[in-house]
Amino acid sequence: MTISTDPSTPAPGPAETGGDLLTAAGARIEEGSFAIIDAEAGSHDYDPAQWTLVRRLIHASGDFDFNGLTRFHPDAIAAGCAALKRGAPIVCDVEMIRAGVSKTRMSPLGVQAHQFIDDPEVIARARAEDTTRATQAMRRAAREGLLEGAVVGIGNAPTALLEVIRLIASEGVRPALVIGMPVGFVAAAESKDLLMRVETVPWIAVRGRKGGSTLVVAALNALMILS
User: Fold this and answer.
1) Where does this protein act, in terms of pathway (predicted)?
2) Is residue 114 among the annotated active site residues?
């Protein structure tokens, strides 16, 4: 189904914008931004919950290409929201994501965010095995049992996403949701293409080279608002 947006589309309410965390002036600015995005985005094929997330990617980046580049496994939104409602951990590839996710939104859900890329053990293993720190960080999360049932957010390192895909395929690890949005020129697009072929675990991905930690933060915050 194609959903058309135009200037007459009602502004999103506080539950959709997260306006309960903003001052009145801040909420008006955010609602105005979303109204402009709705007016300028044109038609799209996303359902309302998916559009809530895509609109936040556009809001975070100023880039309307995410209307189209963003792809969803059919169960992605439901799986992500259900996981966050039960307090599942968020596992990130970099500190920027962990620091950026709203603590005010995580706290009522009992959610904690984790990253291991700066861990001395991870760095040592990466050097010893001639891999990236991002690869070893995901292996560390798997050893600690954090990936099982988790919401995984990858916005920086394609090798982290490739390792998560390997763990799913070869070791039976089952995150609740994988948000794959690594940015870059080496293996970024390819890693996301592989993710979009995964059938056993729900995912949200951005096709091509575009992506970034800011987008993953926006996606996670959108899921917590929807939760």
Assistant:
1) Cofactor biosynthesis; adenosylcobalamin biosynthesis
2) no
